[in-house]
Amino acid sequence: MTEPNRDYNIGASKEYKLNHWGLIRILDAVAASGNLHCRLGYPDGAEVQTSFIHSWDLYQDNVILYTTNSVYRCPLKEHVISGNSLSLLGAVRSRSGVDIEDLEEAVWNTMENEAVRYRSIMTSDLLEKGGMSPADSCVMFCWEGCDLPYLKRVVVYEKGSITIDDLPYIKQGYMNSIALSQNTSMKVRLANSSSPRCCYPYENGFSRAFVENTGNREIHVNISDLKSIPVPAGEIVRVV
Questions:
Q1: What does 73-92 look like in DSSP terms, one character per residue?
Q2: d(Cα 227, Cα 240) in Å, to the nearest integer?
């Protein structure tokens, strides 16, 4: 594998973080889209599309995307695998000569590690706290608790198998609740917000549901408008 840069220089550009990200083609150019963080004047979690990417690099656990005026730090584990968009960077200059195949391998290895983490959580501590046996099934919704909370992926545990529904980036225009079953819905909001963000509708017959808050702000989960359950930043809470 090509050795990535040990450091990178953003020069006069501004650096921001892009979570839950993917790449898109615009005519003959490539841009990125995802949820923006660490940019003054923008709420964390805002859905954005960058300007054209003129170069990129692989630095530790991040893809660094360079546009004319900005630099975007994109964590490997936040890449939306289902978008299958990494190959688009093959047409963009790699600053340190990293091959696109090496980048794809790094992302897949990262996601495999995430799958191992989910399996460990959902087959040990989480199940024991929920009073479940390994034969049971459950679903976990992974939310980013921030100014504009957003759903990133759905992880299903069933009969020993882990399935990750890595949701496509920028889901706009969806209903403001998740359908857990015919009669049960979930709404997610910040503690000081009266209305939930628009989010991805997901329906399945699982009787147990968990929420993982991967962000830095506490979120509140309302189940069928009957109760509000706090999910602190960095924690996993059973909500059904």
A1: EEEGGGB-GGG--GGGGGGS
A2: 11
pLDDT at 131: 60
Q: Is 136 exposed, middle or buried (0-12, 13-18, 19+ CB in 10 A)?
A: middle
Q: Which tokens is 141 given? A: 């919704």
Residue 151: predicted pLDDT: 85
Q: Diameter of the chain by CA atoms? A: 55
Separation CA 56–CA 95 (nearest Å): 6
Question: Backbone dihedral region of 170: left (phi > 0), alpha (psi from -120 to 50 degrees) or beta?
Answer: left
Sign of CA dihedral 5, 152, 125, 121: negative
> Minimal CA–CA distance to 137: which of 197, 205, 70?
205
Residue 208: predicted pLDDT: 77
Q: Which of 116, 126, 164, 156 is nearest to 140 (CA)?
A: 156
Q: Is the pLDDT of residue 176 over 50?
A: no
Residues 184 and 240 sit within 8 Å (Cβ to Cβ): yes
